[in-house]
Amino acid sequence: MRAMADKENCTRVTRLSKKRAAEAMAAPLQQQSKKRVVLGEITSGPNVGLSQISEQQKLKPRRAKRKVLKAVAEEGVTEKGKNEDRGIYIDAKSDDPQMCAAYVSEIYEYIRQMEQKRRPLPDYIEKVQKDLSANMRGILVDWLIEVAEEYALLPDTLYLAVSYIDRFLSTNVLTRQKLQLLGVSSMLIASKYEEISPRNVEEFCYITDNTYTKDEVVEMEADVLKSLKFELGSPTIKTFLRRFTQVSQEDYKTAKLQLEFLGYYLAELSLLDYSCLKFLPSLVAAAVIFLSRFTLQPNLHPWNKALQQYSGYKPSSLKQCVLIIHDLQLSRRGGALIAIREKYKQHKFKCVSTLSSPPEIPDSYFEDVIA
User: Fold this and answer.
1) Within its chain, how far is the Cα of 17 from the centroid?
2) Sign of torsion, CA 344 156 243 100?
């Protein structure tokens, strides 16, 4: 018995010693892994180690970063006038991390460049297509709005789908029999890009009353992707409308939600009209804000210095686009396309499609001098 007890004690000691040895070996590794190195501080030499970088060197860039961020935040809040050209003031005030306050200006500079590169031909129906008309395109977009509403898709999905359609038709001749096939395939691609849980192919076949088979939709999907060169992240009207709406609401007295929904309604109306393709998405978004403010407060000038600063557009450059969307709002154009109007009659959208707008916009509102 005593021999067995001695054997068990020896086994425990051996295990304990192995455990301590393992912990001793792991300790320096754990201590080393907690150290962080600023990459800019490391030279190209192969023998530079962690111990050669002093604590003062590591803390220096952190202190500088804190100082810069603090200065940006304080200056943005207290000195509005100085920072309007950098887009700091309104964005820096937001507590929403998705507003990316620290680098929002750089983001919008980039997407303003991208909207120039990834835009459709403004006259592809005249120059490329032989069997399609502007009215057919409008009918397709109106139907896609119903599809997006039926499947509860994100607005971004709708805008991207329309963008894919126009970009595809700018380089590929299509017959009218395949136009709806192009629409559902583009919506399928856009939903895969934007939605957390995109709809499957069978559902898009079903929504066309099974006019097209699964294989046909997938084949068209592949053709669209190849035509777009897999460049799917194109800026849309909605991309710019988010920021312009936020700026517009800063000096607005009426209910902000009503202004927001009215902007969404007018922006979707612009998708119906082939004439709006000649305008950049950022310009259409600015025109939508202009007309939204005019609709709700027609006696006040709908544009101001902040909106001009953030959008980059003067009232005179918006005039042609504003007048087209105004005609759409008053059903002077596209009156037979009712999907959007019915959608925004709902109470959840504040019934903004029922709002009346003055039949004429004063010419003085399009003058470039803004107080």
Assistant:
1) 59
2) positive
Cα torsion for 135, 141, 144, 145, to the nearest 10°? -120
Q: What is the largest CA-CA distance in the chain?
A: 109
pLDDT digits (tens, 9 = 90+) for 278-334: 999 999 999 999 999 999 989 988 988 888 888 888 999 999 999 999 999 998 888
Tokens of 185: 């395939």
Q: Domains along the chain?
A: 124-227 (1.10.472.10), 237-366 (1.10.472.10)
Q: Tokens 């054997």, residue?
A: 7
CA-to-CA distance for 157 and 193, rounded, in angstroms?
Answer: 8
Task: For residue 122, count other CB atoms closer than 10 A to its CB.
Answer: 16
DSSP state of 355: -
Q: Which of 74, 182, 174, 77 has the alpha carbon at shortest distance from 133? A: 174
For the CA atoms of 140, 123, 190, 313, the dihedral, rounded to the nearest 10 degrees, stands at -110
As a whole number of angstroms, the distance between CA 285 and CA 115 comes to 13
* Residues 177-201 pLDDT 10s: 999 999 999 999 999 999 898 888 9
Q: What is the DSSP letter of 152?
A: T
Helix (H, G, I), strand (E, B), or coil: what is residue 28? helix
Helices (H) and strands (E) in the chain, counts: 17, 0
Chain position carrying tokens 């200006």: 105
Q: Tell me the two tokens of residue 355.
A: 């709002």
Gap between the Cα atoms of 30 and 35, Å rounded: 9
What is the C-alpha separation between 220 and 56, in angstroms, rounded?
A: 60
